[in-house]
Every structure is written in C-alpha cells, then in structure tokens.
Amino acid sequence: MSLQPLRDDLPRFLEPYLPQPSGSQAAKPFVTLTYAQSLDSRISKGKGIRTTISHAETKTMTHYLRYHHDGILIGSGTVLADDPGLNCKYGSEEGYSHSPRPIVLDSRQQWRFEGSKMKDLYLKSQGQAPIVVVSEEPREREKDVAYLLCPYLSSSRVDWKTLLKKLHDEFDIKSIMVEGGATVINDLLLKPALVDALIITIGSRFLGSSGVEVSPIQSVELEAVAWWNGTADAVLCAKLSGSK
Length: 244
Ligand SMILES: NC(=O)C1=CN([C@@H]2O[C@H](COP(=O)(O)OP(=O)(O)OC[C@H]3O[C@@H](n4cnc5c(N)ncnc54)[C@H](OP(=O)(O)O)[C@@H]3O)[C@@H](O)[C@H]2O)C=CC1
Ligand SMILES: Nc1nc(O)c(N)c(N[C@@H]2O[C@H](COP(=O)(O)O)[C@@H](O)[C@H]2O)n1
Known about the structure:
This protein is an alpha/beta fold.
C-alpha cells in the first residue's frame, strides 16, 4: 500500500528535531524516541495486538522519519507482537534505499528473521537485514543477520550507553529512531543524556485500560516543546529536560 503525500508543513516543523547532516563528530548516535499513542497513553489495544493509531498523514510522517535515520530500534515484545517491516516507503522506489537498519533487542533469542516480514522486504531489496542485540553468544546464527553481543545491566535490560557506542563504532550508525514498545520507551524516557529528540503522535482515540500503557515510573519534564495539528492527530516534538 502506498503512502499519501507528506503534508507540506511537516518538514519545517520537524527539522529542529531531526539528526543533523553527517559530518558530526558525536561519539554516540543521535537518538529519536518516536511512537504513536492514544489519548489514554496506550500504544496498542493489548499485548500482542498490532494496533493502528496514526492517521494516514502521520503514518507518512513516520516513514519520513525513517528516511532520516540510519537505524530503527525495537524491543523483543514489539518484534514478536507486530512482525514489523521497519523499512522506508517515503519517496516511493527511491525511499527503499533509505530504509534504516533494523535493530532488535532480543537477549532471550526468541525471534526468528526467517519467515518474518522484515526478511521478505529484505529479499525484495525493500528493507535492510537486522542487527540482533544479544547478551550471550547466539545459540543459532541466521544468514544475513548481524549479532551484537552487548552487556546487560540486569535481565532484559541492555546497557544503553554501551549499545549506542557499539552501534556507532562497529556499524557506523549515526542516528537511531527508537519506535518502542512500552518497556523500551518507559526506560528511555528517564535517560535525557541518551535521547536527543522526542516525537510523539497523539491519535484521536482511547484504547482502554487493558491497552499497553506508556507511563514512566517517575515524572518527566520536557522542553523545546512544539505541537503540530493534523486532520485527526497531533504531533508533539520536544527534548527531555536535562538533555544536551
Ligand atoms: N504505537 C506505537 O507507536 C508502537 C506500539 N508498540 C506496541 O508495543 C507493544 C510491545 O511493548 P512491550 O511488550 O513493552 O515490549 P518492548 O517492545 O518494549 O520490548 C521489551 C523487551 O525489550 C528488551 N530490552 C532489552 N533491554 C531493554 C531495556 N533497557 N529496556 C527495556 N527493554 C529492553 C527485553 O527483551 P529481551 O529480554 O527479550 O531482550 C524487554 O523485555 C506491542 O503491543 C506493540 O504493538 C510498539 C512500538 C510502537
Ligand atoms: N507511528 C506508528 N503509528 C502506529 O499507529 C503504529 N501502530 C506504529 N507502530 C510501529 O510501527 C511498526 C510497524 O512497522 P511497519 O509498518 O510494519 O513497517 C510497529 O512494530 C511499531 O513499532 N507506529
């Protein structure tokens, strides 16, 4: 399915929050935390239920963001629930070549590239093969998958600082958009030193109390806040207070 055109006021609105053009000497990738939530702060109807929240307009925006990042990161909960493609469709045929590298946190090695939508797109040259982040030597190595062995602070909690440095130094990834899911987002909302920009789509619906909730364990202040109003959604761009 093709995307609808990008609304022409979005590039200017997003520009201050996008990774800067290459040439930056930063030691870590630029990290954008971006996701779509309901009015009651749910990002899906329930665990394992892939749920559309974004309007067609903001779906196009997501692919525009993918166009501008080298990597796209998700947790194992999301890859197992959604079987996402994570490619870039913005800019039609040309857009595929701007697809970010998928990065999957999967320390328990539950996910398989084989049979996934990601692999299907990769085989059609419409997306990239993933980097799978693991805490110990993989039990099985799948063809075309790169495995990144990384320290974990505790069970299922990767050491973000080391991971970001390794992605930068070993894979030349200068910018990453983190799409989710809730466990990953709740953790990163508390890390202003690592997150450079926050881009949240707020869809005009409620998903109910059994939905997967984004709500960090403590309060989080934002700065450099800007809002965009779409046909059915709003987009919040901001920086976490305390970020550089
Ligand atoms: N609306 C939207 O924009 C989006 C919605 N979603 C929804 O989110 C839901 C999934 O969320 P959820 O179940 O919370 O799973 P997540 O996708 O957040 O995955 C969590 C897993 O990531 C791994 N992980 C490794 N290090 C960390 C760390 N430091 N912090 C957090 N997680 C880490 C762990 O798995 P392991 O031990 O296996 O390594 C952990 O269990 C799905 O329903 C999906 O549809 C997802 C993305 C975007
Ligand atoms: N921006 C946005 N809006 C929604 O309504 C969503 N449900 C999501 N989900 C994220 O996008 C991934 C699916 O990607 P593909 O379309 O398969 O490429 C999904 O896994 C979530 O990370 N995002």
